[in-house]
Amino acid sequence: MKGDELVFAPLGGCREIGMNLNAYGFGPPDNRRWIIVDVGVTFGDDTTPGVDLIMPDPVYLESFTDDIEAIILTHAHEDHIGAIAWLWPKLRAPIYATPFTAYLVSEKLRERGLDKEAPVHVMQLRERRQFGPFDVEMVTLTHSIPEPNGLAIRTPLGMILHTGDWKIDPDPLIGEDFDQAKIEELGREGILAMVCDSTNVFEEGEAGSEGMAREALRRAVAEQKGRVAITAFASNVARVQSACEAARANNRSVCLLGRSMIRVVGAAQSVGMLQGFNFIEPNEAVSLSPQHVLYLCTGSQGEANAALARVARGDHPVVKLGSEDTVIFSSRVIPGNEKSIAAVQNMLAERNIKLVTDRQFDIHVSGHPCRDELRRMYLWAKPRVAVPVHGERRHIMEHARYAKSLQVPEAITPDNGDLIRLAPGPVQVVDQVPAGRLHVDGQVLTSDKAGGMWERKKMAYNGHVAVSVVIAKGKIEDGPAIVARGFSEPDGRPADESLESLDEAAEDAMAALKRGDFGDDEKIEKALIRAVRRAAEVQFGKRPLVDVTIHRI
């Protein structure tokens, strides 16, 4: 139809590895229909104190929720589904996923009381459905989780291949093989644009097979004498099965530790995976001889509340490890988690527990494509346009360069908030749309631009000063009184003595006010904040957050 356009709007995942949220629109600019692909999270760090989860802000999509045909999920990793229960009330579109992913999504919705309200529809592997102007077909790929799917999105203006997360695994162990024939078939049909994973674009060669990791894990467990704990990403069901196989080969019983480990194993078993394995409870494991026990734990990234961290601290209610025992890290270090992982490993070392990582054995392989795999995918798919996603800025820029070197005619480097017209005409950014972040702060969902986070950072780095003054009948009745928190004490000097300069600054500020100013709260507050902050900078080299309370009697 005249005026129709095919557009792509990444709202997350194009300046970070994680937090994926992608929207595709079709129709004239004033009357588009949309599908959303993935609704994921990333995790808080030292720059977001108190925040566990961070997710894309879907405010752009909220203005036309009636035009959203579907939310389609490619696979069950948290950076692709972790925000669904938080953001669904803002989007209110039906959810579609393959059985394993649908199970985990339903559990997330149930935990937030949305299971009766948010419809989750199961799509089978290789199924093809129509969503308004979008004809969507599931394409079976391989990754580090069951049922990873690319999406062949056909429209009247061309086909998009949205890969999701993938690699080419010749021996995936769980699930179906990478469907090379389908990719080649789509390439012959004609792919306008391939929206593709950029995570490992700097890595030469191939990611490696899960079968290699399974054999290495079996050998690693065989060399240990006491209790063994393996920590891995719970979502990597093939790795979970490899750990179970290693336990069986070495006459060990498997005990699951950690909520997400138990939940993912339940999801896998519900769709026919991990059959033939029995798991024991922690209370049963402690009664067995050490050489017959294998714990399968959450906490591979050093998460403070995960099972492994509790074991490392010695505050797990049941499981205790000691000098004869071993912890095997069968996972990669996600950038940004180095400190937290090292902290857990150091606590384990303090207990004289042996540590085994992928430096000793090849017990982990990546789930994302390296350069040789990207080359083969472009050779099979033959897209006219490369659209790199799922990466930091450096990944996306390098991916675009690499695609051009593989003779892809066009490549664009999207950023969160770009509205990209894929067709008709040349591919180009035609608009910028809102693409902020939302923080889960306790049980509150709030914008990252909200003042609370700024104040929390200010207090964390610069301390906090509270000033109170009592005014009665236009005169100071009491104060100003200073309470300061978060300041280091100079050597040998009492804490209250080091704050004398702040007291004096507050008193001088009040003395400098005219008598008529004592009726103006705003003027008093500004004078005290300015004086106390300046004195703190001189005394401590800090500019603290200053709060003023004025009592009138």
Structure notes:
This protein is globular. With 553 residues, it is an alpha/beta fold. Helices cover 31% and strands 27% of the residues. The protein folds into three domains: 5-205 and 366-447, Ribonuclease Z/Hydroxyacylglutathione hydrolase-like (Metallo-beta-lactamase, Chain A, 4-Layer Sandwich), CATH 3.60.15; 210-356, Metallo-hydrolase/oxidoreductase (Rossmann fold, 3-Layer(aba) Sandwich), CATH 3.40.50; 463-552, Ubiquitin-like (UB roll) (Roll), CATH 3.10.20.580. It has 17 helices and 28 strands. α16 (500-512) packs antiparallel against α17.
| Outline type | globular
Strand element count: 28
- Reported by name, the CATH topology of the largest domain is Metallo-beta-lactamase, Chain A
Measured on Cα atoms, how large is the radius of gyration? Answer: 28 Å
Amount of helix: 25-40%
User: Which parts are unreliable, with pLDDT below 50 for 5 consecutive residues or more?
Assistant: none
Quote the average pLDDT: 92
So, CATH architecture of the largest domain? Answer: 4-Layer Sandwich
Number of domains: 3
CATH class of the largest domain: Alpha Beta
Count of discrete alpha- or pi-helical segments spanning 4 or more residues: 17
Strand order of the largest sheet: 8-7-6-3-2-1-22-23
